[in-house]
Amino acid sequence: MSHSTEKVRVGRLSDIDPLGSRRLNVNGLEIALFRLSGGEILAVENRCPHKGGVLSEGMVCGPVVHCPLHDWRIDLRSGEALDPDKGCIETFATEVADDGTIFLTLNASPGAAESEPDSHIA
Amino acid sequence: MTTIERKKLVLVGNGMAGVRTIEHLLKLAPDRYDITIFGAEPHPNYNRIMLSSVLAGGVGMDEIVINDLDWYRGGGITLHMGQAVTMIDPRRRRVYAEGGIEEEYDELILATGSNAFILPVPGADKEGVIGFRDIKDCRTMQEASAKYKKAVVIGGGLLGLEAARGLLNLGMDVTVVHINEYLMERQLDRPASIMLQQELEKQGMKFLLKKQTEAVLGRQRAKGLLFKDGSMLEADLVVMAVGIRPNVELARRSGLDVNRGIVVDDHMRTSVPNIHAVGECAEHRGIAYGLVAPLYEQGAVLAKNLAGASADGYAGSVTSTKLKVSGVDVFSAGIFTEPEGARSLRYQDEIEGVYKKLVIRDDRLIGAVLFGETGEGPSLFSLIRSGERIAGREKELLLGLPAGAAAACGSGGGAARLEAMPGDEIVCGCNGVSKSEIVAAIGDGCTSLGAVKACTKASASCGGCKPLVEGLVQLYAGDAAVAVKEGICGCTGLSRDEIVAEIKRMGLKTVKEVMNVLDWNNEEGCSKCRPSLNYYLGMLWPAEYKDEKESRFANERYHANIQKDGTYSVIPRIYGGVTSPTELKRIAEVAEKFDVPLVKFTGGQRLDLLGVKKEDLPGVWEALDMPSGHGYGKALRTVKTCVGSTFCRFGTQDAMGMGVRLEKAFERMNAPAKVKLAVSGCPRNCAEATVKDFGVVAIDGGWELHVGGNAGVHVRATELLGVVKTDDEVEEWASAFLQYYRENATWNERTAPWVERVGLEHIKQVLASEDERKALHARLRDTLDRTVDPWKQIVNEPELRKNFERLPAAEVVSGSAADDGERKKEESA
Ligand code: SRM
Ligand SMILES: Cc1cc2nc3c(=O)[nH]c(=O)nc-3n(C[C@H](O)[C@H](O)[C@H](O)COP(=O)(O)OP(=O)(O)OC[C@H]3O[C@@H](n4cnc5c(N)ncnc54)[C@H](O)[C@@H]3O)c2cc1C
Ligand code: SF4
Ligand code: FES
To answer: FRET label pair with B440: which of A71, B160, B458, B795, CA 20 to 30 Å apart?
Structure first.
């Protein structure tokens, strides 16, 4: 992880159901990819700021995912928890090519580099 | 998203039915059409019903406008006011109006209403002879009252009496001439009619009954009437209120099929493509209606069709009427004569001036007439419409004691009655607004009659329900501490019952559609309303509805219980808690093969494999080769059993056999909340059946059926539903109970609070009828027969199975994201 940004191919639009999500692990980092109703793909760190709930398993309502453990709502665009809760997770830039291929840009930010790979459930 | 090109929609007739259709359409599909409206009258859409009140005084002409000009402008609607359409050319799809305006259409709605029927007698065209239909007629009467003294109203029906009352208020001497022997014979039976006549006579109205008009006398202006029997009556003003005729001239001229009205099918389509008709001008299954409530129902169907949403057709309406004459309370609904096979119950109190009649056929209410006390009208009307059985409740309905609210009687109705009124009771019949909708509006800050009217439309049409709405405002807005009804979540103000009723009425078929049509304030809902809508839709339309897994909580989407670390637990079904060495061995092998961290006996008599990785779930299921135990769902969980007569020395019946049978009968059953059953072999009750949703306890020669138990957060023991003899009866009763619960409980409401809420007595009454039980049983069977085991389905369908797997390790394409210009979408954060 020497470079500061890295663009990776992570799958295709058809891999993700509308209002659904898929998980992936890049360099030990757990990422959840969400597909909103309009086809937009958003990527976030797959870890609820509350108690580490697995966000990919949550219900998607508009641009928000409800954590499956205690129903916190996380804005997938900003990574912020919505009121009344407080917290934030990392978001990642995504692109969808004309042929449906999804690309993800990873910022090897200090935070991400520090997080130890094994803190995420396998 | 591409925008579809707007189509052209033209409405002919700027009246109550037509404009209501447009209002509805704008809600469903605001951008689909460019809308043009032609109206023959020089006014925006106004409330025709209120003309009676305008005439009687107290309401100004400007107060009855429903849609002011700003409304048309705001909706982007082109309005041609005072422009009657004279011709339609269906081939060129154009309409032509008097003033030379022509418009092209893709879809055309005819809503031309009716005309007052003017008796074809000599002299009917004289000055001073009018109908009672529009603002113009109303003005003519007001002006005449300033100059003349004697008025005659021909016609002793609703409209005639309301006109007569108005003319009395204007200071005229009024006689009502009626051809029949008694008044309002189309709504009332003879006793009620006689009481009505006496009351109106007290108010100063005169009557000439059984009189047939032969001619209107006078030169240029009417001077009097000549009757068939040779007698005469002086009059300066003659109001003909003898009926209405659907206004079909334009349609007939343009080649549409016309009978009494413009003939339409259940989707309000006329005989000519792209031309629709609604309102009084339309004839549906032989009936042309003359009241707004059915016309609004027609409008809702048409709006849905035009919006491109699928709609169940319009199936006709049962109507109810109320006379809007102050000091006289008259209500009539349904069939009030006694057709063959029907019986009637009557109550008459000459001193208080009260008369009530209920007409009943096959234990169902089919009609009602009320005079003097009409407060029960709406609840009777909703019973007529729902067609529910009223056996055993007849007397209570006749005497107007609200069920289970004996305390309210004697207090003279008022607040107590309003409080006791069920939430789904329709308060405003014209607009179909229920009590709970009004209460919700009040809760949302509508604390005046006007505000409630503005946001719910209650009392916005005939205004007959105004006292009730005012009462509700007083009752629920007065004290903030009063429990105000809320919607099912922050996304809507509607209650469960309202939502279910709307889904049924409009035939809504997807979660998205419900949220759109019912004006959700959160476009995609939330984790509360989405699963509940998904449940209600599946319950209502078992055949057509496709379950939306994206609207289910993780456990029900992945068919396992999510754990705090994102792994899942797997509980296979072990019918009645009875297993076998082979099955146990297989479970053990699977646990070893997949390195399952923990294997545990559950409190529900089965085995739980905890800590299974998500990607292993399909593999585990496949290897287990057992059906899902639904340990994660709002669904049938376990059926616990004890040993029973098979081995136990006290056992009276085969508890295990019964448990296995019930579990097989109801497995895969979705419900508002989880459902647990148990069967004990004797009253020692080792299976703890009396804390289950449905508990069965064997006794010598039969089975006790217990319902509404819960051992969870709030322990509640069951109540005894009844005792039956045979095994088949156990299944039938269980099935009927569970289906009734499925159809009536609120999502996430277990049987314990539900039974408490609706009362065991009510449930007993419903289930007492064998027909009802069989029908409920059949509906549940039909639903269950369409279900499949979710584990098997996921194992076999790659499209579903893929969701359990991780996406493959990402492939690096570049070290920097800045160089790519041709990508479609950039990150939006
Ligand atoms: C596995 C089991 C405990 C055990 O190891 O024995 C269990 C485990 C859970 N129970 Fe339970 N309940 C289990 C039997 C019970 C029982 C006993 C019974 O069914 O005979 C009860 C009391 C009976 C009753 O329901 O009335 C019970 C009352 C609850 C409640 C309170 C329900 C209530 O209405 O008050 C909850 C909370 C809820 O449902 O919202 C709950 C919720 C849960 C959940 C699903 C919590 C959750 O949402 O994640 C637990 C999942 C644990 C997991 O990690 O998978 N569990 N739970 C039992 C599974 C039985 C089975 O074979 O399916
Ligand atoms: C005094 C009175 C009291 C009533 N009280 C009640 C009551 O208490 N409860 C109840 O349910 N109902 C009541 N009604 C009946 C109710 O008003 C009607 O059922 C309802 O208005 C019918 O709606 P509609 O849209 O079909 O017709 P309308 O409301 O009559 O609208 C039709 C419109 O089309 C226009 N039009 C006709 N031909 C053309 C053309 N060629 N080009 C352009 N425009 C055209 C007409 O001018 C009219 O404005 C009452 C009616 C009256 C008159
Ligand atoms: S239910 Fe009765 S018979 Fe069965 S095990 Fe319990 S005590 Fe024994
Ligand atoms: S861990 Fe997400 S809400 Fe608690």
So the answer is: A71
